[in-house]
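Appendix C reproduces, verbatim, an entry submitted by the partner laboratory led by Prof. M.T., so that reviewers can inspect both the input and the predicted structure.
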Amino acid sequence: MYRNKLTWRIQLTLSDNPVSRALFHQALTDHPVSAARFLPRGTNRAEMTGEVLVDLKQDEGLGDLLDALHALSPRVFVTCADLAPTPTRTPRAPAQR
């Protein structure tokens, strides 16, 4: 059975200024955002990383959101944030005797 909604993690690089922050929040206004934050990119840089988690039904509005974010940054990274861990990605607990 397929899940109704997926949580997407989207990251992009922005200029570290109030205008970029406002444009970032404006791009997110019509989307079901569950979290958004800014992360510094390093000491001698005037850039920051914007990270957002958005819950969407399959194929619902993801393209529109990515278009809006691509207008702010040429590099937008997208991953599915709620993939179930597989045995190869989950560390095993030591067996108890």
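The chain has a mean pLDDT of 82. Additional entries are available on request from the coordinating office.
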